[in-house]
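Escalated from tier 1: zinc ion holo job.
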Amino acid sequence: MHPSDTDTLPCPLCEGRRPRCHLCDGSGTVTPALERIYSAERLARVLAPEWRGADDRQRPGVATFSLATYYRRRRFLRGKVVAARGRPVHDGAFGIVELLDKDGRPLITLHGLAWGYVGEGPAGLANVLADALPHFFPTTDDARQFVLSLPQNNLWRVP
Ligand SMILES: [Zn+2]
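Tier 2 regenerated the structure:
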């Protein structure tokens, strides 16, 4: 690992042994955000083996399933996501988060993420933002600080 490369972890899928690994693209390393997204996918498979789709509304308010939903559509989303936005849901702690294409159209909608406090939902949102919008959030910590700074009851958008 290079000294400047502190935002990477060994690839949990191939540990650097597979040049065609779809998680790390053969680099052998992943960001902490991607490592947590992949862990959530594995956990979702254990918690709900019957849940095969990519719709987190079937598991409302659980960040793990939102991350698994993102993971299951990640290959489709790569290179297409240019922005993100969120809006609070008034009867719950969680909000609705959309990742948008260049024309502002939602590519995926997630229902188990949150912002504005320290917890599972905001940590999940930070991981999704860091993975989907690396130009805006060069490290997972940048995304975490952004998510923490968002007012809980307001709309937000990046950029
Ligand atoms: Zn790998």
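The pocket of zinc ion is lined by residues 11, 13-14, 18, 21, 23-24 (CB under 6 Å).
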